[in-house]
Design brief:
Oligomer: single chain
Number of helices: 5
Largest sheet: 7 strands, mixed
Structural class: alpha+beta
Order of helices and strands: EHHEEHEHEHEE
Shape: globular
């Protein structure tokens, strides 16, 4: 059965769903290591400090699930169509506005590090790749940034993750800044938020 774009939406994570959120990140980290991608380390999201940080982000209402919505079921006996909504969680992301990590990464290179929404922990489960959910999440982040009066969308990745850096530059049309020169090197990316985004309907529950 074909999957259509309207079957996907974004939903805020509830506090009781913390472990579900972390499990998705951990699976992604395991896949990255298995495929020699230097980005996330398995076990890092279950570490107490990171777990507490994610829990705080959820409490602020800034953590989201990407959800697949299954609605229509046909009764084979009566041929009647009934509605029985079900949801499958297939991805995650978070949005930050005043996080100290983003301040550390950006204050040396932009005039106002607070004039942006920062996207982190974007994951789409492997079986749902190819439906354009990454770009949709980026657009949703920009819409949320507009609501908060921000003018830029920013994100980062490990500096030697060449595949992800190429995607941000060439496919997602971000401007690449010089790598963050700290103890760990991070690639830094930015693109401006345009007011026309406010007219694009993206579903949130």
């Amino acid at each position: 059965m074909a999957i259509i774009a309207d079957q996907f939406s974004f939903k805020k994570v509830e506090p009781i769903q913390l472990d579900v959120f972390i499990d998705i990140l951990e699976r992604a980290a395991q896949w990255m290591v298995a495929n020699n991608l230097n980005q996330w380390i398995p076990g890092s999201f279950t570490a107490p400090k990171t777990r507490a940080h994610i829990e705080h982000t959820i409490s602020l209402g800034n953590a989201y699930f990407i959800v697949k919505n299954d609605i229509t079921i046909v009764n084979s006996t009566t041929s009647a169509t009934t509605s029985s909504p079900t949801e499958t969680i297939i991805g995650t992301f978070t949005l930050n506005y005043t996080d100290p990590f983003d301040e550390m990464l950006w204050k040396d290179i932009v005039d106002d590090w607070t004039d942006a929404v920062y996207l982190h922990r974007l994951v789409v489960e492997r079986e749902y790749k190819g439906y354009g959910l990454g770009p949709k999440a980026l657009m949703f982040a920009e819409q949320e940034g507009l609501k908060h009066g921000k003018h830029f969308l920013r994100l980062d990745c490990m500096a030697d993750n060449k595949l992800l850096k190429a995607y941000y530059r060439e496919k997602a049309h971000f401007k690449e800044f010089e790598d963050y020169p700290g103890e760990r090197l991070f690639g830094r990316f930015e693109r401006p938020i345009t007011a026309t985004l406010s007219t694009i309907p993206l579903s949130e529950k």
